[in-house]
Design goal:
The chain is of the alpha/beta class and 322 residues long. It has two domains: 157 residues, Medium-chain alcohol dehydrogenases, catalytic domain (Quinone Oxidoreductase, Chain A, domain 1, Alpha-Beta Complex); 133 residues, Alpha-Beta Complex (Quinone Oxidoreductase, Chain A, domain 1). It is built from ten helices and 18 strands. The strands form four sheets. Strands 3, 5, 6, 9, 10, 17 and 18 form a seven-stranded mixed β-sheet that branches. Strands 13-12-11-14-15-16 form a six-stranded parallel β-sheet, sandwiched between helices. It has a three-stranded antiparallel β-sheet with strand order 2-1-4, with no helix packed on it. Helix 5 links the parallel strand 12 and strand 13. Helix 3 packs across helix 4 and helix 3 crosses helix 9.
Amino acid sequence: MKALVLQQLHHPLVLQETAQPRPARGEALVRLKAAALNRRDWWITQGQYSQIQLPVILGSDGAGEYQGKPVVLYPAGAWGNDPRVQGKDFRILGLPENGTFAEWIVVRKQHVVPKPGHLSWEQAAALPLAGLTAYRVLFSRCRLRPGERVLITGIGGGVALMTLQFALAAGAEVYVTSGSEVKIQKALEIGAKGGANYREADWGNRLKAQSGNFDVVIDSAGGDGFAALMGLCNPAARIGVYGGTLGKINGLSPQILYWKQLSILGSTMGTLSEFKRMLGFVCQHRIVPAVDAVFPLAEGNEAMQRLAGSEQFGKVVLKIDE
């Protein structure tokens, strides 16, 4: 089969012929039709991930056929027995096991789930990791309620966009931040009520002028800007954190934290049960993930550069030919 293989760090992926995997007992052999990229894939190529084992086929998101039926793949494994937190053996598809940047993949049978019928292959491939992460942080962790006001930082990435779509479908009023006016405008076209450019010094005041304060904040950046988010919170607000691209948080005020009785809630991926509930929510509300660009498998490195440039609005997807 054809697969995109990472052979060396800081080098392009190599499209090559590899042996088709063989399923063991309890496993399913899935013919992939599309796969989506995640920031995680780029970080692995740059060596910015722990316990990298090479060579490896990257890719955590995939949609394809199993026994003639259209399916999507649960993008994780070995969550463990406690739904509150993943266990020590938790892992994400695409490292250390081979992932979805290939024509075929073997996964556990219970991780093969029917594809939402209203989605194309490319849209379905864009859904699993981003959708699962968004669903858990928004609903399982932050317990979003209809009518609440939500702030989503860094709009444009896959998880942030899915969070926007899920919050709107749940009846929330949603605002966004971005370093790009173009991305803010696109978010408004999807249904966001307002937004602010975090590159501007008064971005917090601009948001307050538009909206007042927020009941739920969803953040993936951390860094020095995080402390300002607490000042934008209503009493008893929940702040969900699923990433930390800007690093450590400085200037956090415990006085604001305890006086407003805020909750800061970390969230990573989600359980198989949450994955199935997320798919049900997507089907109920006919949600279509935003796809920024589609590349053939042979142009996987071009797709990776599109992701690395951070100009995308939505998911970058690989189409896997017959």
